[in-house]
Amino acid sequence: SPEVAPYCASKWAIEGLTQALAQELPDGLAAVAMNPGVINTHMLQTCWGAHASSYEDASIWAKTAAPFLLAIDISQNGQAITAP
To answer: Model pTM?
Structure first.
């Protein structure tokens, strides 16, 4: 899709920041970059049009993702993870 370069660049920046932060955090704390996957949002509708409706609405995604997010632990420090 056109005009998404700044969005893509910011996603890469978050992963780099997360890796740097993971090295600086005190023991017992962790930082992860969490990729939510494809969610039907206004941005997705702008880029993909009607095809965006084939993806979950954010409120439905949140119910599925909540247990995943609550299970993140220190062993994942610095990683980029993807929600189910």
So the answer is: 0.72
